[in-house]
Structures are given as structure tokens and as C-alpha cells.
Amino acid sequence: MQSCVRSAVFSLLLSLQLGGQVKITRDGDRIIVDVQGKPFTALYITGAETTKPYFHPVRAATGTIVTRRYPMESLEGELRNEKHQRGLRFSHGDVNGFDFWDNEASYTTTNRGFIVLDRVLGLVGGDKTGSIDARFKWVDPKQKVLIEETRKMVIYSDPTLRTIDFDIVLRAIEKVTFNDTKEGTFGMRLAAGLEAPTKNAPAQPKRTGIMVNSNGQESEANCWGKRAN
Questions:
Q1: Which residue did the predictor score with more confidence, 136 or 163?
Q2: Structurally, how many domains does the chain consist of?
């Protein structure tokens, strides 16, 4: 993408249980989402360790957390690696050579870019849906703005599903290039039990996940960094 507006709509479908009213409230550095009086998730938008907005944790209607807790929390049995993979997030690993993906505040790499909150545009709750509207700026290490992002996230309540729709518009302030990289762009770090088995993972909980791409290829070795339909 170069010097133009890009609009991307992503739908995240999570197999959850019965839902109801969607309540959305601002609480300091995060925006909290409740469905039918139960916590669903929170969008972290500011704070010393928030280098890009992310949802954490993401829960099933039963209360089961389906995203990894680390590094925001410590839970036995989780891999404590790749701190930048926080919950559910949208970013990219190479924009004009700047890394908006692998960009933790505690890292010492000098090419880290940051996605910072400009303004919360609107928070709307409702009986069947709720929405979060916000504007962010993608800035380089010197705080020069490269991209202005407007993002609307709609949370739905459904008898059998939870759906978060992301409608994202990126407006280039400078000439920008999203370079080809495996580090991006819409990511969700899963809870330990949903991960695929790996040699260095703790024995418990048992890893039961299977990675499959749209070409029918399976396993991280065959999917990660590979093109698919």
C-alpha cells in the first residue's frame, strides 16, 4: 500500500455461548466490553506499555479466556515469550522500515514504530450491538506521524456466536510502503490449550490446536510465512 487510503474489514468469529445486551465503558487506559452483564473483553488504548491497541483478555460467554494472559498477567503453563503478541491486535512489522508489530516498550530495537491513541470518537452500547470508534496515529521513533488510522469495532450479541467486526481505514500522511513480512498483520495470541503442540511448551495444559491455512496445509512449518488464498 502506498500513499493512499486503505480500508479493511475483518470479522472475528468466536464460538461462544448465549449473549445479550452489550455494554461499553471507558475505564482509564482501557475500554471495557460486557455482554449480558458478564465481562467479554477490554481494549487497551493508552499506558506506558501499550505500544499498539489490543483486546485482552477475550472470553467465551462461560468466562473461559481464549487468549494468552502473558505478559499482562502470569499464568502457570503459558509460554513466556514474544511479549509483543498481546491478545488480539492489528499492526504490521515493516512500514517504511519501522516495526509496528515487534515493538514492546521494554525492547531496545531502534526501529520500533508505535500506534498511539489520538481520540476516542464514540462509545455506543445497545441491546444487540455495541461499538467503539477511535482514531490512532502510526508514528516513527521520533514521533513523526506516518499514518492516521480510524477504526470502528462493532461487537454483536448472538445466541451461538460473538462477532467483532473491524472496519479500519488507514490514511497515509507521508509516503508509506507496507513491506512484505511475515510479522503481521491481524493477530491473536491464543490461550495455551488452543496452541499447537511444540517441543518447548510446558506439559500442561495439553496443547490441542491445529494450524491450517486456506490451501489445506497444516502445521506452523507449512503455514507460517507462506502465501495462501
A1: 136
A2: 1
